[in-house]
Design goal:
Number of helices: 6
Shape: globular
Helix content: 10-25%
CATH topology of the largest domain: Fumarylacetoacetate hydrolase, domain 2
CATH superfamily of the largest domain: Fumarylacetoacetase-like, C-terminal domain
Number of domains: 2
Number of strands: 19
Length: 293
């Protein structure tokens, strides 16, 4: 199934994406409040979704809705750094440290979450906006101390992520949090593809285009740390919850590591596509004048 959150007639709704339509189940009797709550129901929630979409859902043209991030308000949005050898190699050529040999995680503050086709902001405070196409893993069950080989049972499914980064702010501190968390810099989607639809998440082609130019082209088979390793590592430290998003690292091809650098500019169009999942596409705009405290 392709689980989707979308905006229609003034509010957010959820349901299934099927071809060129979405099936709205948000008003079906007994519906959960959102997809995060649905995931917390476990297998019963997915079974409810199938029944509701088949028997009670309202079919809407995909062109009439605005897709939102499948989980608009995850409790955690975590990114794994340096998970492709090709990316580590290009960083080393640019004079940056290859970093630790283990898993290096950082927070993307959840206020950065953005829709799969919404505009992303070029910050007023930096000209070093970069892209990173990544496979995202969405947790489906509250868990702690997951054992090796058992991670599949806690994964709900997969999304495409653009782990956008403001490089000068990212490098201010080892945590990377500031440079990874600017508002709008966490688009993902276009929907959550449930794990039964993807037999092997480590056999997917991942590509990123800038204005139609292919910049990243890799396979998730190239990951250094596998999804099972990630879930085991994280759940040893803290509880993972339904709807948490894990962005699993980016291959080579980032603009900030090219010579000369090729950072994003207003008007650029960034497309991240992952085999069997789909594509997200975001246009860069100048950061609007916003409210001040």
């Amino acid at each position: 199934m392709k689980l989707t959150t979308f905006h229609y007639l003034g509010r957010d709704r959820f349901g299934l994406a099927e071809g060129d339509a979405v099936v709205d189940v948000s008003e079906v009797a007994g519906a959960p409040g959102d997809l995060r709550e649905l995931l917390a129901w476990g297998d019963d929630g997915l079974a409810w979704m199938r029944r509701a979409a088949t028997t009670h859902g309202r079919r809407l043209p995909l062109s009439d809705v605005r897709l939102r991030a499948p989980i608009p308000e995850p409790r955690k949005f975590l990114g794994l750094g340096g998970n492709y050898a090709s990316h580590l190699d290009e960083a080393a050529r640019a004079g940056l440290s290859r970093g630790a040999s283990g898993q290096v995680w950082f927070n993307k503050q959840v206020s950065c979450v953005n829709g799969p086709f919404d505009a992303v902001h070029l910050p007023r405070v930096s000209g070093q906006l970069d892209y990173e196409g990544e496979l995202g893993v969405v947790i489906g069950r509250r868990c702690r101390h997951v054992r090796a080989g058992e991670s599949a049972s806690v994964v709900a499914g997969y999304v495409a992520v653009n782990d956008m980064s403001v490089r000068d702010w990212q490098l201010r501190a080892p945590t990377h949090t500031l440079g990874k968390s600017f508002d709008t810099h966490g688009p993902f989607g276009p929907w959550l593809v449930t794990r039964d639809e993807i037999p092997d998440p480590h056999a997917l082609r991942l590509r990123t285009w800038i204005n139609g130019e292919l910049r990243q082209d890799a396979s998730t088979a190239e990951m250094i740390h596998r999804i099972d390793d990630m879930v085991v590592e994280l759940s040893a430290a803290f509880t993972l919850e339904p709807g948490d998003v894990l962005s699993t690292g980016s291959p080579a091809g980032c603009g900030g590591l090219m010579t000369p650098t090729r950072y994003l500019r207003a008007g650029d169009r960034v497309r991240v596509e992952i085999e069997s999942i789909g594509a997200i596409e975001n246009v860069v705009i100048d950061e609007p004048a916003g409210e001040r405290a």
